[in-house]
């Protein structure tokens, strides 16, 4: 049995272990630590089984540089699942519960830089359709989901991630 719940004190080592196992380097694990330390882990959920933490998703604040700023937005990054458990719906459960938590917390939209075919199942669409770009110059893989009705009607500009993401732009 698996439980998806908010991150709590004492989860840090388990979360870090999942990211270290899921990604080829420590960049994502370090990013999670930096975002948490900076107070920018707006929504942070873990998937837990009787063996411990097996998945994690983090949403952190983003801003729009441009006109028509639609309100508070978040970036989904990173999302990780223990490699031996991939394909069992853990990542999907984390994404769905995370999106719901973001909506419940009053956020207007969320963005993700990821596989369009994966994130479309949760309601993400190509962000450029809404006049949104990103500092990584990604197009097809840069996606957005509206969390508050009408939030993206006037959205135009470039999404800027928190400074902790700077390691990915160098």
Automatic annotation (TrEMBL):
<dbReference type="InterPro" id="IPR016181">
    <property type="entry name" value="Acyl_CoA_acyltransferase"/>
</dbReference>
<dbReference type="Pfam" id="PF13527">
    <property type="entry name" value="Acetyltransf_9"/>
</dbReference>
<dbReference type="InterPro" id="IPR000182">
    <property type="entry name" value="GNAT_dom"/>
</dbReference>
<feature type="domain" description="N-acetyltransferase">
    <location>
        <begin position="2"/>
        <end position="149"/>
    </location>
</feature>
<protein>
    <submittedName>
        <fullName>Acetyltransferase</fullName>
    </submittedName>
</protein>
<dbReference type="GO" id="GO:0016747">
    <property type="term" value="F:acyltransferase activity, transferring groups other than amino-acyl groups"/>
</dbReference>
